[in-house]
Amino acid sequence: MRVDKYLWCIRYFKTRSIATKACKEGKVRVNGDIIKPSREIYPTDKITVRKNQVNYELVVLDTPKSRLGAKLVDIYRKDVTPTETLQKLDLLKYSKEYYRKKGAGRPTKKDRRDIDDWFEEPSNNDSEE
User: Fold this and answer.
1) Can you point out the beta strands (E) in the chain?
2) Exposed, middle or buried by CB within 10 Å (0-12, 13-18, 19+), for 30?
3) Which of 35, 67, 73, 108 has most Cβ atoms within 10 angstroms of its Cβ?
């Protein structure tokens, strides 16, 4: 089975074209080698996928016939990603939330309307008196 199709079947990528693009960009390695999307994979191959700033490491157990449900994925692959790598992903997520609070940057449409209303109120009161 092609490596791009395999990664799509085991739900590492949402579409097969995204999996193909990742292979072309060098984000997928099989047994340590950068590969093309058409590279055939076999059981016991070790795949490394760089996604969301994390290197996921997989061992191929078997090749599925078609795309799988999420519960059946573990039959066809073994995830050997180090726990330290996954902890870095959690830290990255928390650091983004710390530096960028929601709504702290550019004003939303509602914020702009509130600001406009606040500036318009004094001018309306002056004209009424």
Assistant:
1) 28-30, 33-34, 46-51, 54-60, 77-79
2) buried
3) 35
Angle (CA) 42-48-54 rounded to 5° is 155
Unique residue bearing structure tokens 């309307």: 113
Q: Do residues 22 and 81 touch, judged by C-beta distance below 8 A?
A: no
DSSP 8-class letter at 104: S
Kindly report which listed range (26-30, 78-82, 122-126) carries the lowest average pLDDT score.
122-126
Query: What is the average per-residue pLDDT within 98-106?
Result: 61
The distance in angstroms from the start CA to the end CA of the chain is 80
Greater confidence (10 vs 110) lies with 10
Plot region of 31 (φ>0 → left; ψ -120 to 50 → alpha; else → beta): left
Average pLDDT over residues 43-65: 88
Q: How far is residue 125 from each of residues 61, 108, 119, measured CA to CA in Å?
A: 75, 26, 11
What's the mean pLDDT in 14-33? 90
